[in-house]
Amino acid sequence: MIMKSEQVVNIIEALLFVSEKPLSVTRFVSLLPEFKDKEIEAAIDRLGQIYDDRSLSIIKIAGGYQLATKPDYHQWVQRLFTARAKPRLSQAALETLSVIAYKQPVSRIEIEAIRGVNSDGVLGTLLERNLVSIRGRAETVGRPLLYGTTDEFLHYFGLNDLVELPRPEEIEAMLKKNEGEIQEDEADEKAETMTQDET
Amino acid sequence: MAYRVKLQNFEGPLDLLLFLIKKNEVDIYDIPIALVTRQYLEYIKMMQQLDLDVASEFILMAATLIRIKVRMLLPKPEIEEEIDDFDPRRELVERLLEYKKYKEVAYELSRLETRQRLHFYRPENEAQLTQFEVQETAYGQVSLFDLLAAFNESIKRFENEPVHKVIASALSVDDQIVFIEELLTGRNQISFSELLQHVHIFNRSVLVATFLALLELIHRGAVLVKQKSPFSEILLFNPTINN
Lengths: 199, 243
Known about the structure:
Chain A is α+β, with helices and mostly antiparallel strands and 199 residues long. Chain A folds into 2 domains: 4-72, Arc Repressor Mutant, subunit A (Orthogonal Bundle); 91-193, Arc Repressor Mutant, subunit A. Chain A is 53% helix and 13% strand. In chain A, the strands form 2 sheets. In chain A, strands 3-5-4 form a 3-stranded antiparallel beta sheet. Chain A starts with a helix and ends with a helix. Chain B has helices at 2-7, 13-23, 33-49, 56-73, 82-86, 90-116, 126-133, 144-159, 173-184, 192-199, 204-220, and strands at residues 140-141, 189-191, 224-227, 234-237. In chain B, strand 3 and strand 4 (234-237) form a beta hairpin. The model of chain B is unreliable at 1-6 and 126-138 (pLDDT under 50). Chains A and B meet through strand 2, helix 5, strand 4, helix 9 and helix 10 of A and helix 1, helix 2, helix 6 and helix 7 of B.
């Protein structure tokens, strides 16, 4: 007979294997009243260790746990899919998401005030991809729609919780650190274009 | 043609300004407005020569830059303390710094996106999804606004129907509260449209009474409303049945 602790590890593995969405500890607890909360938490940890040298890993994402293939196997798993991967998000989409993530619930007007450009189209794309949702209307003049990020947003960027996003002071630090790296590459690239064009 | 693609790299006027500040290696807190404005206008001219649609935002920023430049030519106020407040560039600098912050976060998100794209998860299968839907707790909150929108959608169906009979409605809001409670007795959930189906054989006022009854029940906490995603079907839950 299997020991109880081994049994719960296997049960959790089976549930994670079948689930298309992250499963939270709360969800496990409600699904498995036979086991104590602590046993379940320990089992999740144990399962994580078991997968250490396997091609799968248990990822803490969007407030729960989900099985995923490890990055090392990306190139092989990719061959399974005939359809092309979803396109990456545009710079406009990433910028808009950044504003929404920090300022939510936020109206289109506020987003546009920060970005300095019309953001109507990009908001439509983000709604379509379910990365943002409408949260209601502001109590201000014109009662504009308010937008917020979704669980799909967390999932898309591999975040467990919004608090994992860098805090304002960390952004300041990033600004200083990145000053020399990416921005320069980008600047060089654009500068090149401009000088070529000027000649 | 390669230029066309690259020139569009700028997300907007703020992005272009940040680039010019970077390129000229000048201090963002002390922007040489004359130089930056000249380069900015050159850039817009270039966009026009290449037949790119110059977005109105770029033109607006050009006007702002020129206005700042003009204001800087005006004599500064005499009193020392006012000098800080006087700098006509200040508002623009604040906008640039704010924008730069989000641009940085966008870069961070792009990095996360790259990392996350290396993981594969069990793909979501539409057919299976509906099967599991009821047990999933991943419903989003429904606002009153969503509910009203759904109600408007339903009531539209009655607009084109000619009304022949006028019947004094015997059903009050209280009657409909009882009706909804009975519908939800012994079951976990009912969809909003299903609820209206039950009353749609009656006239509009019964429909309204039913809607008011629903609002009352939500207010009392006797009904929970949730939905899976924006614009999807709104579901009413019986909170006494644990789901």
